[in-house]
Design brief:
Order of helices and strands: HH
Organism: Streptomyces salyersiae
Pfam family, one: DUF6381
Protein name: DUF6381 family protein
InterPro entries: DUF6381
Length: about 60
Amino acid sequence: MSVAGESGGRVRQMRAKAQELKEAAERATDPEQRQRLQDKARRLREQSEQESSMQDRGMDPMV
């Protein structure tokens, strides 16, 4: 698999994990736990968007 393909897979995994965290936050009954999960999901989404943007410009985020 190419580096771009591996990076694309990483971005997909990060987005999937962010979605899992978001859903877990929606189910959480403890407000503090809910906030922590939402924050983690947001950070992962932001990181995946940044890596995706770097790939679009032809840059490898792993270098």
